[in-house]
Specification:
249 residues, mainly alpha, 2 domains, single chain, 76% helix
Amino acid sequence: MAIALAAVLIVIVQVLVAGVPFAMAARGLVGMWLAPLLLSVLLMYTRSLTLTVQLSVIIAVMALTAIFVVFGNPVDYWIEELTKVIAALNDSQQYALAAWMEAQKPNAGQLTMGAVLLYWTLHIAAFVIGYKMYRLLPGERPEFGRFRDLNLGRVIALALAIMSIASMLTDSIWVTSVAVILFGAFWTQGLSIVHWLYSQQMMPRIGFVAVYTMLLSFILTAVTAMGLAIFGYLDAWFNLRREPKIKLD
């Protein structure tokens, strides 16, 4: 209730004080608050961090599908938007940036999947950090699982395998986009394995810090995330985090 009230107040301040159009303020509010609220509700309902993240992946795929249903071919939409941006840049004499944007038009088919995956990634990262801060609060609080035990499961892994094969057999942009989003989601599981290795003293602190440094370095972010995604995908199938068996004499 408090969060909803704060959200309404933000819209009122933007409209009355900053002069932002109501429609723009409302869209910005939905984009900023919808995902955190949804993830919080899912966590309280499922009482499981793992299940919440799994459901968020499914919701991301559903959102992607809705975009394709509403806009038909998103490539046409992105090219139109890029054309508007390029025209605005040329009007402001930012010719170099306009030329760079013009060169991105052939990649318009990747923008939808990239936007959805980026939106999901940023909000999941913020959600996990918020959950960690919640667990650090003093006093007795319900536990919903640990990040280092996160597993997207074999159902999502199987869906990724099917969509990946389908993307090689068809020219469907939707199929390829779904495969990319499902694969991209596994970076979170790969990162959870890094946390598990560190907690089991199987990874030195310098290695743990190095992973985060590469992940946040911008230059190596894509390569690091891809490596983590592969690591996480293998874990979904082969359970790389099996506890070592203790032999008794």
